[in-house]
């Protein structure tokens, strides 16, 4: 049987909760589960902050998210409304520059509906 | 239903909400700071009652916190068993 | 957006009070979107979440735009199941008549049974 | 000492920590969601005991939340009285 | 008697808690209290996010902070370490742009020590 | 930095567990700075904060850099008062010998009395 999983991340990155979410995805992949997408909502949107600065000897959550996207083609959907409420910006131009890290897709809540509908299981972390 | 608890029930109402909502046949998974609930009186009382409620905790998360349990009614599991639990249950709630 | 592959029943649990965090507003935003995509969506209020559905609140006093007014409009979004945990209401010294008219007060057990009947559950 | 409580004691341990730490002569100020504590059994029990503990709440914050009290032992104040309280007490703790 | 007050803000801006902090400062000023500075720490640093986007009909906390700084010369000190952990950046240059709003001063915890030492009363909000 | 106009006694209260938020680390950072500016600084652990000072924790298992090790070094920063609330310890099923060696376990009343004796109190 082909199992599919979607993850909704609502907790911020500067905590051990993010490490657990990433490890859970890696375990799912190792178990042959297809992770069809991650949706970042509420304080979870801070996971997509390009400038998030964590000392180099600490867990680099952003790099881990990007690796999951790159190596396993897991879409990382960012709720842009929730992100803008927390200081992130998708603007480009002379006086502005997107503060959203590569590998994240700017999305709306419609994407949450789609992931929720498609996945066999959805877990909020 | 699988109840995922990621916070301490001593500082917050996460554990209480979970126990108030759980029905026979449900499972409780203690992850992250949820492992602190291994010594919480409300959880111990439930375990003592031989309810049809299964309680699991992520072994690694408890070890890192130096939290120990000698309850036979709770099971230490790893992350791969967490994935199994997720697919064994129809749905889940994450309490915080 | 592509056609949805399946229709699921969605429960949105509100467990936090309305003004001190974005949780209530963001839960409602999610519920409205699920409703507009014709996913059967129910709202659940438990613990401090019950403070979201009490009458005569006035966010304007706090210079807030009051998202709580949207609750009365939920039937227009096909969201008709609004369940409130009676035990949480009583524990907070509130009474049934302090709640909005279009909510259903349920015992702990009924509340829990309804919750279990949904395919996907998000908690805010 | 002035204890400032800005969260509900129903969801968190803010009120309990405050009451466990308060000594005679201290004052408690309920602000923001702290106003929900006006109906909390632990606070009401303290008020009933005629302790040397004064309890204030920001009137506007309670009104906005449709939270009412008929306790004679608690005083409704405005923000300017909050400033007075801050300077009347040597120090303060904000519980969350 | 000349009263002085310092504020330490540790709560994030997308909540009503910020409005209360700003109103408390305004009441202090109206009572003749000198507010010698505000220090932003923990999740409070998000108050300084330049791109914080709040619908125009809602409370504009950033504008209120800037007004307090402009009209009453209240220093707004931002703990840069805490800010960088939450995705803010003070970098300038070709590929980067500071995401910290005007009127905020990039500081370290030493400034918290100074404010704590100087003010007659300190309140954490 | 200019000379400090006054020397105050500072209490830093830790009320949260170590790994799930930045609170513990940021509280410690603040305490170390106050100590290095020769402000008399005391650390208080209450509620889930007591989990910060239990022995044999291993953040490396969670891929964490373990800031808790710094607690043993606090005397070098002239921070010698480390108070732990006994009631919180007991409520959590912990015992005195599970705590770090350089902390003082105090009854609720003693804990509270010491706290009151400080000029400025920050809570994390």
From TrEMBL, chains A, E:
Keyword Cytoplasm part of the UniProt annotation: yes
Residue ranges the record marks as coiled coil: none
Instruction: Identify a single GO molecular function assigned to this protein.
Output: sulfur carrier activity
Choose one Gene Ontology CC annotation of this protein and give it.
sulfurtransferase complex
Q: Is Nucleotidyltransferase one of the keywords?
A: no
Per UniProt, the keywords (alphabetical) are: Cytoplasm, Transferase
Which Gene3D superfamilies is this protein grouped with? DsrEFH-like
What biological process terms from GO does the record include? tRNA wobble position uridine thiolation
Q: Which domain of life is it from?
A: Bacteria
Where in the cell does this protein reside?
Answer: Cytoplasm
Give the PANTHER family listed for this entry: PROTEIN YCHN, SULFURTRANSFERASE TUSD
NCBIfam families the UniProt entry points to = PRK00207.1, sulf_tusD_dsrE
Q: Which family does it belong to?
A: Belongs to the DsrE/TusD family.
The name this protein carries in UniProt is tRNA 2-thiouridine synthesizing protein D
From TrEMBL, chains B, D:
Q: A Pfam family for this UniProt protein?
A: DsrH
Parts of the chain that traverse the membrane: none
Q: Which SUPFAM superfamilies match?
A: DsrEFH-like
Biological process, per Gene Ontology = tRNA wobble position uridine thiolation
What Gene Ontology cellular-component terms does the record carry? sulfurtransferase complex
Q: Tell me the protein's name.
A: tRNA 2-thiouridine synthesizing protein B
Q: Which organism is it from?
A: Colwellia chukchiensis
TrEMBL record, chains C, F:
Q: What SUPFAM superfamilies would the database entry show?
A: DsrEFH-like
- Give the domain of life: Bacteria
InterPro entries, sorted = DsrEFH-like, Sulphur_relay_DsrE/F-like, Sulphur_relay_TusC/DsrF
Q: What Pfam family is a match for this entry?
A: DsrE
Family membership noted in the UniProt record: Belongs to the DsrF/TusC family.
Record protein name field: tRNA 2-thiouridine synthesizing protein C
What is the originating organism of this protein? Colwellia chukchiensis
Lineage runs: Bacteria, Pseudomonadati, Pseudomonadota, Gammaproteobacteria, Alteromonadales
């Amino acid at each position: 049987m082909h199992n599919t999983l979607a993850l909704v991340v609502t907790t911020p990155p500067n905590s051990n909760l993010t490490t657990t979410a990433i490890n859970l995805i890696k375990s799912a992949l190792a178990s042959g589960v297809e992770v069809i997408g991650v949706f970042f909502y509420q304080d979870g949107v801070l996971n997509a902050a390009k400038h998030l600065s964590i000392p180099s000897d600490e867990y680099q959550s952003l790099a881990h998210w990007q690796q999951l996207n790159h190596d396993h083609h897991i879409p990382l959907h960012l709720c842009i409304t929730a992100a803008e409420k927390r200081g992130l910006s998708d603007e480009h131009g002379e006086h502005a520059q997107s503060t959203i890290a590569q590998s994240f897709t700017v999305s709306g809540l419609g994407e949450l509906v789609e992931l929720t509908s498609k996945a066999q299981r959805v877990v909020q972390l | 239903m699988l109840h995922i608890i990621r916070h301490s029930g001593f500082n917050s109402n996460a554990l209480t909400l979970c126990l108030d909502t759980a029905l026979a046949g449900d499972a409780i998974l203690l992850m992250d700071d949820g492992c602190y609930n291994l010594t919480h009186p409300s959880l111990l009382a439930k375990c003592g009652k031989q309810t049809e409620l299964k309680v699991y905790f992520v072994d690694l998360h408890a070890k890192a916190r130096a939290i120990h349990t000698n309850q036979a009614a709770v099971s230490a599991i790893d992350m791969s068993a967490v994935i199994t639990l997720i697919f064994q249950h129809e749905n889940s709630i994450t309490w915080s | 957006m592509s056609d949805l592959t399946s229709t699921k029943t969605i429960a949105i649990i509100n467990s936090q009070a309305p003004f001190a965090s974005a949780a209530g507003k963001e839960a409602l935003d999610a519920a409205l979107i699920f409703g507009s995509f014709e996913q059967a969506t129910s709202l659940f209020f438990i613990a401090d979440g019950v403070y979201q559905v009490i009458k005569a609140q006035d966010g304007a006093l706090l210079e807030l735009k009051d998202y709580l007014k949207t609750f009365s409009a939920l039937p227009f979004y096909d969201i008709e199941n609004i369940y409130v945990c009676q035990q949480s209401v009583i524990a907070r010294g509130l009474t049934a008549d302090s709640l909005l008219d279009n909510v259903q007060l349920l015992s702990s057990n009924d509340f829990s049974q309804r919750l279990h009947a949904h395919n996907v559950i998000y908690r805010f």
